[in-house]
Amino acid sequence: RFEDMERFSRAALREATTDPGCATGDDVFLCTKFLTEALERTDPDSPEREALLRQSLELMTAGGLGGADVRVTTTTDSLASLLRERGRIDEAEALERSMEDRPLSRSATASDFEWAMKLLQRGDLFKKRRRYAEAEAMYRRALGIVESQLGGRRYTAATINVLANALEAQGKFDEALPLRRRALNIFEAEHEREHHVVAAALHRLAEALSARGEVEEALERLDAAAHMYAATKGADHEKTRQVEQQATGLRFSISAFGVEATKMWARLGAAAWRRNAASSAAGATAPTPTATRTPPSPRVGGAPSSRPAGAGSEAAACVVCGRSSGRA
User: Fold this and answer.
1) Alpha-carbon separation of residue 188 from 194, 202, 228 (angstroms)
2) What single-letter DSSP state applies at residue 258?
């Protein structure tokens, strides 16, 4: 009911900004956040989305919130993402650079939660800029605070996931795999057995297993994720179809070429990813994963290929995770 969400958020923002001098950072931030999220669904091309974010930044700054405040950085990041989405890359990157230049320090009044969120936001910023090693460092610091001070299992699992993403972007699949297992264990304990969050964790674990060449367990996890997505999102949902396609491709490769050959191709794909990640860190063009991280179907275009998925082209996607070596 995004139309209702838009109407109520608009009324709340109007009330909060009737007297700009009395508007609090939380009021402006939350009202703007909910309204822009509603507009993203009801009118995604509306110029009002950008205007609202800019107005929110002006009001929060006028209200005394500094550039390092988590509400200001969150809104700035949302504006940069919107500009990037609309093709205004130079403006988006200028905003992102301005956030990078802001000192990252913990104020005397900042709670553990606020400080962890600042670290996570800075990590997200580094990740957008493909500075994955720096993102990893920020995520590790945030995870330490979440585990030792906040104690919430869901916060822990969410932070583990973003850390694993940064590790995988660098080709550090051996380090990412135990994190994916840990996140799955937490989500299974926190949610019902059949839950879309658990399905997503199973899917991520399957991709990490594939990158390690552990294709048999990867197939089991893919089948479980596909079943859970079908139960929670529907058999025709895009996530259900995506995971089913990946399971089909992997099952075909194992059946047609054997487990060992499939493991070999999966490991070769991961090795190519590591090489490109290292080149990216050294300043070369960063590798670009496929948009959906989905492998080509083995039956697209006629009969199945005579080689495992990924053979014959350095740029072909991995049989499960869809990662490309980035080279043609």
Assistant:
1) 9, 10, 12
2) -
- φ, ψ for residue 324, nearest 5 deg: -105, 150
Question: Distances from the Cα of 77 to the Cαs of 131, 144, 164, 256, in angstroms?
Answer: 16, 24, 22, 47
Q: Find the DSSP H helices in the chain.
A: 2-16, 25-42, 48-62, 70-85, 89-100, 112-128, 132-145, 153-169, 173-190, 196-211, 215-232, 238-257, 259-281
What is the rounded distance in angstroms from the CA atom of residue 227 to the CA atom of residue 231? 6
Q: What does pTM read for this prediction?
A: 0.67
Distances (CA, A) of 306 to 99, 114, 248, 296, 318: 50, 54, 16, 14, 16
Interatomic CA distance for residues 225 and 203, integer angstroms: 6
pLDDT digits (tens, 9 = 90+) for 169-225: 998 999 999 999 999 999 998 887 788 999 999 999 999 999 989 999 999 999 999
CB atoms within 10 A of CB 112: 14
Highest mean pLDDT among 69-78, 120-129, 230-239, 288-297 belongs to: 230-239
* Amino acid found at 274: R
| CA dist., res. 13 & res. 175, Å (int) | 45
